[in-house]
What we know:
Blueprint: H1 5-26, H2 29-67, H3 72-104, H4 128-133, H5 140-145, H6 149-165, H7 171-192, H8 195-210, H9 213-217, H10 219-244, H11 246-255, H12 257-266, H13 269-283, H14 287-300, H15 303-320, H16 326-342, H17 349-361, H18 369-372, H19 375-400
Helix pairs in contact: 1-8, 1-12, 2-6, 2-7, 2-8, 2-13, 2-14, 3-10, 3-14, 3-15, 3-16, 3-19, 10-11, 10-15, 10-19, 12-13, 12-19, 13-14, 13-19, 14-19, 15-16, 15-17, 15-19, 16-17
Amino acid sequence: MEKRLAWMILGAVGLGLVAGGLIFTFLPASQVATVTDNLSIITDIFLRLIKMIIAPLVFATLVTGIAHMGDSRSLGRIGLRTMLWFVGASAVSISLGLILVNLFQPGVDSGFALPTGDSGIETREFTYKSFLTELVPTSIVDAMASNQILQIVIFSLFFGVALAASGKVGEPLLKGIESLVDIMLRITNYVMRFAPIAVFAAVTSVIASNGFGVLAAYGLFIGGFYVGLLILWLLLFATGALVFGLANSVDLARAVKEPLVLAFSTASSEAAYPKTLSALEQYGVPRRVASFVLPLGYSFNLDGSMMYCSFAILFIAQAYGIELSVLEQITALLLLMVTSKGMAGVPRASLVVIASTLGFLGIPEAGLLLILGIDQFLDMGRSATNVVGNAVATTVVARWEGDLKR
């Protein structure tokens, strides 16, 4: 079952494209809405099952990883190396998006009717005060209930350090949490059996609602963005090859194939988290490193989402005929370096970050309506890229620590 899952998911994507095209072509709009509403039940249940797993799995794996590091010096060293990689990867991802959208200019003379009014995306002003205070949960129960990954990470750091310092007193609890990790991974395997069905429902629903015409209308934008993702993948794996060897980099790409396909087909990085963790451990990354770096990556290292933010912002500016100077684009880069972290965990977080940055640059936020119709197709690519970025980051840190078992 495990080896066939990736192929089953790809098959579900193909069947979904065919089924969605037939529904869009032959059914009246009123019936299409009914079909897509019913299909959404399947995808919503699957994604809820994934969200049910994430919080306890992140907590348990991160706590055990910290507890097994042995001392605070190791924790600080790994944390510093991890954040240095994240900052560098963020800068490259956002810069690449800016460079490519300037090169392709998909919004110039696009012929799109410029939207007016409210975009429908809830925004909030970014401040350092709100960012820093919201790092710390008022209640770990509330943080887990709402899947606030960054807050769970903060609590787990405190819990793991305290558990490691407790010595023999904490050993029974540590064994219990290690058992929780094994149980949650077993539950993950159960949930993944439903992935092909959920993927079929999701793809069918999107195509049935929009048809293939929306892809043609935004061809240059979608094509340019996916070219950027491909370049980013090559840069990430090439950098990984410099650190842990070309053969190992190729093997890593093969190892994360299944979570990558899952993230792409469901348009959800969260859906791929358990499989990514398992794949990295099988590849040779020790659990103590994988369970520390990977959860942090889901808050600080969303490479695909960050590139999408810069790409989309300049596309909207071009569609409005707004010229952004080099200085303004650099300002946008620096702002995205921070806001892309501060809003992690928010539903449709990329759109929220884009809306906030548009307002800062003086671009009408209603421009978001230009990309809402194709956001699902773009979300698939950026979700898969987030998996690639975090897999490479985790493996690089393991090599720097001398713990990569290859």
